[in-house]
């Protein structure tokens, strides 16, 4: 677009501009001398665009500059003082106008920088012209699904009752549902399986939430660190000097403080935290960008609603230095004051037990010296305990306490609540971190007296010592669940040790050392990191984690390489001071060795069935348990009831399976006034054991119930269920599609009349539910009227998405004419060409529905099919359709059906098959949400010209942008990546890593991902599978596409600014900068006699500077040119008119061209005779000068007149020289 110069008759010295909401750019010239007026000129860009290049041109006087150039057509900016024709001086600093585009938004903001000042004489006409280049608009695609209009039959026939059907379901949990890492399939022939049928049992693996709970002891807080994303996701104030952190059986945190003796419970799952202040949201610590927002403080601990307990458990003891969960829903607390004591707290009720002092009558065992061996039984004695330093509970409900005396290990029976035994090793001063293994053996750190670790085996009452004098004393210890190896943090050395436990020889001492804080195995410390390491633990994937008070980092160690993990090579700085943690801060030790458990869950889709009981079949040996809980869900998965039994303070409760029985029924609480009816039904089963060697087995999970309702009740359930299933929580905005519904649902009801209650749109489920529940069936079935509404409504004519109709009916039409009209209307809506077609699905309602009629409607809508006498039958192409219909009943309640033994149709969904339809619609939504139609306006000036970026007449992918706005990864420029072409590494991994906030492990998954064309016309883009999944999961706010408007001059001729044959050029697109660049059409070549500057040095035919070896690849010449060779002469005379350009750089092609009588070779002339005049120099174009030996005659002048061509004659001369030399040899 070009805007002509507009005169401003007053002196102006300021310029600004604005852009309004319609995309119009307004140029404002104000502060006008003597008048203080304001001048505005509006440039309207149509279509509205997100990018535009606008060049300001200054027009003055006669619109001509000193050279006579018309500034109205010249594209250069004025960047210096110039004198115009009217002799009025104008001084202008560089004036630059630019377009500022923010985060790929659809509307741009035009800004001006380096504002210019103008000095002109009064009454001089000033004007500005703006050349605006309109680009392809940025198109923002919000993930939105198809338009879906539900048409629900509300005629009187819908009130007929349906038959009550009992329902029963029993399934093997090993082949259905979902189970975590704590469970595994046990085969029918397993020797530990008494019933010889497959089932689920406890595994050797463990599943815990992906969080490490890190005590920031100098900040009085604890951090929730995500071990897969490497992010701090929460931070909580918990008291003075926190240290011990443990995870209970439900994955929740318990943390104790050393100085203030405060105990705190924090729920790990924010979604399960209570809304205590009833403000509709959970007020809890969260991550915002790169920052963590802490909600609570010492003044209000419970401001964070995920903090459920915070108190000082007792005033009799102080300093919590030990925490350990048991298998019975208790967490044990150890105190380091006095002689030391323990106390338990119920994780759900927070009921506290008495405190149990660690002194008194106990059975004493003793071993002198520092060697491994059997302990001596000294019998019952009055033993004195010591302040606690750490706790652990084994699978047999025995609690062990490390303590500050370092030379004794007391054992407490949590069943009898008595201190039973104490083990003395007076010469082996060790006892810091403490843990247990799968054999209930106790492992202790060696600090401060002994190096390495020691192990006590309660089964044999033997003690084992594993010294490591090279690396010193150990603080924290943990057992690797998968291998049984013992990992240890070596105090003040910066190393983590891995002790391989040889069960065949427990005396074997085999350490592998890992340089945790070191630059390498033999290197020094990483800069800014100290040596002090404390706690160590494992996540669900077997990775080791450690931390300490030497830095603010947490370290991930890879057991496969015995080095720091490659995806977190230098640990992760939390920025919260140093970390003082010894206990089970990840939860795997308790889940693996103290209270092994596993969970199985399944959600059943019941479509409004009544559930009476859950039925389990299991094997539960003594010491094991199986429990179940359940709840009802809405169609969208949101709970409609609480859990049965109810949770207590974030702790899941379970109905216990009857031990020893082959089957247990769990009746569901309900009444006639409030039956337990569910669209979906969630069942959660937990298996657990107190002894790893004894495992329960789950064989079957099922339920009992019934389904009894009318056709109308079923229609109501279907309509509300479909609308709820597509609803996504949150609002859908222009910029954020993460809250957009998967289907744009609408509702109309029909009987004698059609009532359009709700148009397709966002978050219509509540309105649809209210409308359908407020409607009462009546009258007759006006099937043809509702199809006419379907055919004509604008709600199903969207061009940017699919248009779907769902007809929910019993299929009981009243007249044959209505049916024929309805079939024709459905067919016309599907096949029309004047608007997008409509696909129609049909849902029948069970026993009282006419399945043949509903399937006939489905066939017309493109979702079913018919046959006639075994051959395909298309109702849309059938004549006399009424011959296949018959009518029964008495008017006005007649009923039309398909005549038996004629056409046979299928395709309508039955009431019990609605789930399949839901999945099909959601799949269609998912497929559509990953397709992006490019906005390529039909503008012949821009898009249909040969220089538009294209390949073979189609858009060039390199000139097309696809940009994803991800809720976590932010803006990503997606590369073109076509799996069909075998593209592998398309560059997206590097793009993601460049963001700095995306984990390497995540980025690697998208190495071969990007976008590619979805159709042969290249008008629609789509994403590769992994990226498409991100859209389906609603992790993408929007996707922006743009067919680039840049490089529109590609292919046009241009002047490179170089001299000679290098001057003529053409525009070529640089896709990195998205700008046209002028490239030389011909490359510089050795000089030959042709009247052209071939080597582009500014001198024409300077043959004396050339070397015959430059043409070493030439071996012969066409005989007709031999007489024209230069033979050691160094000058040329060009009397003819050489060809301007030969479009090749191939010397062999030049030889084949005829240049006879164009230029001739002559002896060199004296410079004084051959020096060119300034006129001839100027006429040569570009200021080139002929060589000193060239003729200055008229012929030469004509040959030099702005020409550019290929070398030839000197080439032939040089060629002949080489040939003659060969002959002389």
Task: Please describe what this structure looks like.
Helix 2 runs antiparallel to helix 3. The longest helix has 16 residues. The strands form 22 sheets. Strands 13, 14, 15, 16, 50, 51, 52, 53, 54 and 55 form a ten-stranded antiparallel beta sheet that branches. A six-stranded mixed beta sheet has the order 32-30-36-35-34-33, with no helix packed on it. It is mainly beta and 1225 residues long. It is flat, with a radius of gyration of 43 Å. The N terminus and C terminus are likely disordered. The protein is built from 15 helices and 79 strands. InterPro entries: Vgb, VWF_A, vWFA_dom_sf, WD40/YVTN_repeat-like_dom_sf.
Strand-helix topology:
Elements: E1 2-8, E2 14-19, E3 24-30, E4 39-44, E5 52-60, E6 82-83, E7 89-90, E8 96-100, E9 109-113, E10 126-134, E11 139-141, E12 147-153, E13 165-171, E14 178-179, E15 183-186, E16 199-202, E17 211-216, E18 221-226, E19 231-237, E20 242-247, E21 253-257, E22 263-266, E23 286-288, E24 291-293, E25 307-311, E26 320-325, E27 330-335, E28 341-346, E29 356-357, E30 360-366, E31 373-374, E32 376-383, E33 388-393, E34 398-403, E35 408-413, E36 418-424, E37 434-436, E38 442-445, E39 453-457, E40 462-466, E41 474-479, E42 486-490, E43 495-499, E44 511-515, E45 536-538, E46 544-547, E47 553-558, E48 563-564, E49 572-573, H1 588-594, E50 597-619, E51 624-633, E52 655-656, E53 664-667, E54 677-689, E55 697-707, H2 711-725, E56 744-750, E57 754-761, H3 765-773, H4 783-792, E58 803-808, H5 816-831, E59 839-843, H6 851-860, E60 865-868, E61 871-873, E62 885-888, E63 895-898, E64 903-906, H7 914-929, E65 931-933, E66 950-951, E67 954-955, E68 960-966, E69 970-973, H8 988-993, H9 1000-1004, E70 1011-1013, E71 1020-1023, ...
Parallel strand pairs: 12-56, 12-58, 30-36, 58-59, 76-79
Antiparallel strand pairs: 1-10, 2-3, 3-4, 5-10, 6-7, 8-9, 11-72, 13-55, 14-50, 15-16, 16-55, 17-18, 18-19, 20-21, 21-22, 22-25, 23-24, 26-27, 27-28, 28-29, 30-32, 31-40, 33-34, 34-35, 35-36, 37-38, 38-39, 39-40, 41-42, 42-43, 43-44, 45-46, 46-47, 47-48, 47-49, 50-53, 50-54, 50-55, 51-52, 51-54, ...
Helix pairs in contact: 2-3, 4-5
